[in-house]
Write the structure tokens for this entry.
Amino acid sequence: MNSPRPRTRWAGALAVLVLALVAPTGRGPAGATTVPVTPAFVPVPAASPVREDFDGDGYPDLAVADGTATVGGRHGAGRVTVLYGGPDGLSTGDAGRRAGISRATRGVPGSPAAGEGFGSRVARGDLDADGYADLVVTTAGTSDAVIVWGGPHGLSGATSVPAATAWTGDFDGDGLLDLVLLRPARGDGATGTEATVRTGPVRRTGVPAREAALDPGGLAHVAVVGGATGDVDGDGRDDLVLSAHCGAGAFCTYVYRSTASGPVRTAGHRGGPAVAVGDLDGDGYADVVVDAGTRADPAPDAAARDGEPARRFDVARGSAAGIGGGGAWTSVTVSPTPEGPAPSGAGARDGRSGAGVTLLDTDSDGCADLAAPAAGEPAGHSTFRALSGCPETAAADAVRRR
């Protein structure tokens, strides 16, 4: 979750891109979906990146991804459903304005393929600086991602980019969104992750203003599995956090602090595969949370209930100096309790949250709340909620929904 900053009229105050592993309305075998094709636009630098409004009408839009959807009779081909916003809210009814995006959509490269998982993850933002948010759709495998371009009629047309996963953010502080692309190294015996930063604006051909490798020495030896963005040092730039499998069953977290020339790795931590970024304590600096898994020996005040073990999260607080080394991390143990609803969006995935961990300000107190699936449960089922612990809050809480 990004720290608060000035936004244009398009961005809105509501964080609207919530990804859930649920079937969109009308799910089932389907033929090609047609959406209007819009022309290219001349880039117009904005005061801040447009994040959520795909059609430029001033209302935020919602993208719901389902990488398991059946498309054209091919199970697991995947699709994304876009619900456009308006004066009465999102277009959720039968007569609402919506679009389905898959490999069967006119203008999207490729064809539906069983098990590809198109739409397993998305990122969004105005990559070509034309005033309309764009949507980056990645897959569950090694197939190329696509950028679906925003315009006055909504999302239409798409360009392939070489990535298995992607994140958007203003990583150099120039007010334009940049694109981080990652994919497993290819070739016989290849290991690690290939990563590049495409500095915005990114033209509709996929060509950026400039391109540079991201941490080739470090990422060449690990497999990146998740990530998140947020401003951990309050300098107005988006910082990048990646989680990776670093060998022998272990996972590592890498923090990349952004500079005028792009992200630079400044800290690391041993932790779980899921990571999220958001301002837990309301101090204006985004914090980093890593899901460290279950505890076999929970503390007395975090004992297992109903046979479920306690959950441990490792937390590093943001500051003007960013995220520090090993001493900057503290562990918080949370036990499940049977009361109360889980927050909307629990277990969601988006451009700022790692798989299975989400930071959302669900109670509008200025501090992000933490949501994660319970141990062994899919996202959206049994869910932990560890409240942020704002200065006025005496202690963290935990809520689970069944």
